[in-house]
């Protein structure tokens, strides 16, 4: 979602006549779009600000104007202005005001906007113009679930769904601007609803947009996984066979302490229902190790769950206490060395499963959406329906869909060979 927000902020500033640069040391304005989900992401903001200023001194140029956007801006507000003397602080629900905030900072007043008006930002953003073959589209934001470790409900605010028509319009604009794949985004994207219509109704309408070949969505929550969405996986051809469904832990006691409101058995039953309609679905998840009080036996239950599911890929994190969340005050902090060791074991298991999943694809053929050039001349990179990275030699262009035989599997990608061109 931060990638999506970053693109939208760049489009806003482009409408003001600014041009984007990849070199922060040449920029007049640097927008740091920040993440507050774990402590390390937050600390990075302050070190980035320090580095930008230092480079300006070394290069003997005026330091760029610095705007801090995103969830660190939302959570720390004034504190950032005090601690780092930045020019603009803007929260994730207020960034449509970025041009005005920059203008006022340019006139000499540091400016701050961390208001959370519901949805007004989307209406104030410029139309989508040029995008790559795979584009993001935010359909839902915020969270009402209040898992005890998580800052999202505080930084992104309450669950809000964008209206059906606005999403369909943006999807059409994205396709006109070059997208062949759209990933629908939300903190709990499957909680999206508009007047009784759910995410599956939206997907079925998007499926009919000419030129849109692939639809994905992320991140979904187990408790919002309705039968309609499961059914869509069985019969909507453009809905890709991939499901990111975080579970966080394999111990029911830990899940309860996390306030997840699901247990491992209900999670596994859900996956069975999805696999019943789409047996080849690639599963992905999120895991936290070292939640306060997590015992070795409880952690072993996470490893067992991983074994039972066989994920195609997954993300795993060490628990990071976040200010203001209930878990931050819980007893039983797990020492860093124990967390490190658990994370290592978990990632070894997940890595093995990812490799096995990729290995099992060898010998199959599938469509690959070409997304960018590879390192070698003539080599292109793209994604399989199961979100695997595929590299192949081809004269196909970025945005082409090619039919590919999968030849061999590495730990994180596969090599393929082109069969016949499906579409130009
Ligand atoms: N809404 C999604 C997840 C969004 S946050 C869901 O609940 O499924 C993305 C991931 O960051 C979470 O799934 C979790 O694994 C991780 N995360 C969130 N807060 C964390 C914390 N305090 N410490 C470590 N990992 C955290
Ligand atoms: Fe955070 Fe996801 Fe839980 Fe919401 S459901 S509080 S975003 S982990």
From TrEMBL:
Cofactor(s) demanded: [4Fe-4S] cluster
Catalysed reactions listed for this entry: N(6)-dimethylallyladenosine(37) in tRNA + (sulfur carrier)-SH + AH2 + 2 S-adenosyl-L-methionine = 2-methylsulfanyl-N(6)-dimethylallyladenosine(37) in tRNA + (sulfur carrier)-H + 5'-deoxyadenosine + L-methionine + A + S-adenosyl-L-homocysteine + 2 H(+)
Residues of the TRAM domain: 359-420
Localization per Swiss-Prot or TrEMBL: Cytoplasm
Bound cofactor: record note: Binds 2 [4Fe-4S] clusters. One cluster is coordinated with 3 cysteines and an exchangeable S-adenosyl-L-methionine.
CC annotations in GO: cytosol
A UniProt-annotated Pfam family: UPF0004
UniProt binding sites for [4Fe-4S] cluster: 143, 147, 150
UniProt EC number: 2.8.4.3
Record-linked InterPro entries: Elp3/MiaA/NifB-like_rSAM, Methylthiotransferase, Methylthiotransferase_CS, Methylthiotransferase_N, Methylthiotransferase_N_sf, MiaB_methiolase, rSAM, rSAM_horseshoe
Keyword terms of this UniProt record: 4Fe-4S, Cytoplasm, Iron, Iron-sulfur, Metal-binding, S-adenosyl-L-methionine, Transferase, tRNA processing
Keyword ATP-binding in annotation: no
Record-annotated MTTase N-terminal domain positions: 1-107
Signal sequence extent: none
GO molecular function: 4 iron, 4 sulfur cluster binding; metal ion binding; tRNA-2-methylthio-N(6)-dimethylallyladenosine(37) synthase activity
Domain spans labelled Radical SAM core: 129-356
Assembly and binders: Monomer.
HAMAP family the UniProt entry points to: tRNA_metthiotr_MiaB
Annotated function: Catalyzes the methylthiolation of N6-(dimethylallyl)adenosine (i(6)A), leading to the formation of 2-methylthio-N6-(dimethylallyl)adenosine (ms(2)i(6)A) at position 37 in tRNAs that read codons beginning with uridine.
Family: Belongs to the methylthiotransferase family. MiaB subfamily.
Protein name: tRNA-2-methylthio-N(6)-dimethylallyladenosine synthase
Organism listed in the record: Sphingomonas taxi
Gene that encodes the chain: miaB
